[in-house]
Amino acid sequence: MEKEGFCWASNGYLAKLYNAGSRSVSRRVAELVEAGFIVVEAAVNQHGQRKIYVAECASPNLAGQKWQAKNGEQIITSKRSVQEDHPPREFELFWEGYPNKVGRKACLKRWLSAGLNKQLTEILAGLERWKASDRWKRGYVADPLTFLNQERWKDVPPAAPSSQAKREMNVRKSTPDEKAKARWDQEVMRQRKLSENLHKSDDELAKLAHEALYGSAA
Hints:
Elements: E1 6-7, H1 11-17, H2 22-35, E2 38-44, E3 50-54, E4 67-70, E5 73-76, H3 82-85, H4 89-97, H5 104-113, H6 120-131, H7 134-137, H8 144-149, H9 163-169, H10 176-193, H11 202-214
């Protein structure tokens, strides 16, 4: 642990080392993760073991933390997370640079569980690309948790549409003839729905529509 910063210890190994049950060890490991003292990496080695790191932000000063003895073991009774009080500098740099600051607690939890401190340079570079993108400049900024969960710092933001593409996206204006036809179709439909016109032919409905629009019979 001291040389490489992590260990491969399994729950079975820890249970044997401390003469405890596997379930007890599993529960204690989960409590240490929640309290912010260790980070467990899901990646395994050839023997199927996970990595356990000492959390970079875990403070050796436990003043204010509540501890109690139970069956000779020390357990944390305080629910307060060390990370929330002392987030790593790397996370603070990311948070300071992100334009849409929502969901800080969830983002910090994701940052620590994924061990993103080591990817800070890449993350900040990707963040700058997105901040310079046309999409973000137009206000379509992803929430920071989405940015972290989907590893969007690795993506290439879409290019801004060309002037030609923008022109093609504009809604084409209707011609006077198209507007007149639309009015005509709408009036014929209105006449058709009137109860007194239920049995009238198309020619009769057209005559009524003409009178309604132009004031005289065809």
